[in-house]
Every structure is written in C-alpha cells, then in structure tokens.
Amino acid sequence: MHKIRKGDEVVVLTGRDKGKRGTVLRMLEGCLVVDGVNRVRKAVKPNPMKGSVGGFMDKDMPIDISNVALYNPSTSRGDRVGIKSLEDGRQVRFFRSNGEVVDA
C-alpha cells in the first residue's frame, strides 16, 4: 500500500514550488506528477500529420515523492501518513498528527 496515491491532494515541501498545493495526476517510479507543480515550458515542433502547430507549451514534470506531503484538511497543512490495520483486516492510511483516517 502506497502512502500517496493518484488523486490525492498534496503540498510541496521543498524546491521553487514550495507551499503549492495540487492533485496527483500520475505515479511514476519514485516520482509523481502533480497538477500545476514543477511546470516547465517546452518547445514543440509542428506535426501536420497530427494537426498540431509548433510553439511553446507548458508541461508538468515529475517531482520526487519525498518532496511532497499529503494535505490534511483539518489542520490545513501537509502531514505525514502512516498505515495501520483495522479489526476487520483492512489496511488504511492515517495522519500522524491527529490519527484521523484518510480513506475510510
């Protein structure tokens, strides 16, 4: 079980986008792509076969998973996450600061 999953809202802890919040779009090996974070401008060649014009486009690049924390709505900041087993055998994620279960 991963501590951060696709669709989670996270807060960036380090780097030029420190403090920004966004939703996880994709999970990669040790990295994740967060909406609106680590955005770069890339030059794109025109491709008449696909009907795309050339120019510059903004693209979200991967950020290391250690540089983000899961957003805790009750404290309004990033929080560490743990995993525990319930009595019925399910494993759930919980916030370390207040013990609140992330996904019930």
Strand count, sense and barrel status of the largest sheet are: 6 strands, antiparallel
> Order of strands in the sheet with the most strands?
6-3-2-1-7-8
One letter per element, helices H and strands E, the order comes to EEEEEEEEEE
Low-confidence stretches: none
Strand content: over 45%
Fold and architecture overview:
With about 100 residues, the chain is mainly beta. The protein has strands at about 10, 20-25, 30-35, 40-45, 55-60, 65, 70, 75-80, 80-85, 90-95. Strands 6-3-2-1-7-8 form a six-stranded antiparallel sheet, with no helix packed on it. A hairpin with a 4-residue loop joins β7 and β8. The protein is elongated and about 60 Å long. It has a domain at about 10-80: SH3 type barrels, CATH 2.30.30.30. It contains no helices and ten strands. Helices cover about 0% and strands about 45% of the residues.
Short description:
This protein is mostly beta strands and 104 residues long. The chain has a domain of 71 residues: SH3 type barrels, CATH 2.30.30.
